[in-house]
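look at this stuff:

>
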Amino acid sequence: MSLLETVVTQLPALIGVVVGTVGTMIATTVAERARWRRSQTVRWDERRLDAYADFTRAVKEIHLLALGMLSAHRPGARTPVLDRDEGLARLAEADVRHTLTWEAVLLLGDEATVRAASAWRHAVRDLEQAARALPDPPDDLAALVRQADETRDGFYRAARGSLGVRGGAVDQFRRPSVSPAPPGRARIPLSDL
């Protein structure tokens, strides 16, 4: 058998080896790229989660401080009363933390989450302004508190969507807007508590 006949006879096997090797290299490259993309997605999702959680803590701190300062002006409020001067000092500190966390949300959040975070931030800012206006709080404190709660729920829904987190409705754990009343008694809106 001549050299040419040997080469021609083994050519299909040689082509098969080359095609298999190239195919394996391509499959490996595609798999590596997919693995890298997944790791990047996980990495950024972790950072996004941290940004959202830090922002939530900062805004919630301002919310609670404002509620404490306004507590004496909200009949039946459960938040302990916070002295105005102490409250103002603590609000100033909390505002710095809030500003820093806001930047991370702007950087890492998707459009819907940033929009929802901004709405919550503004609603809590309205509560903060009411606390700063003491001793003359606005008449619509219950509406301000309700707005802050509703916009918080909107932020949680958007953040969950951004992170691909499933779960129940965020607002399912909110207290009902009206407390159950014993027979013969008037119902008291919980927002007034």
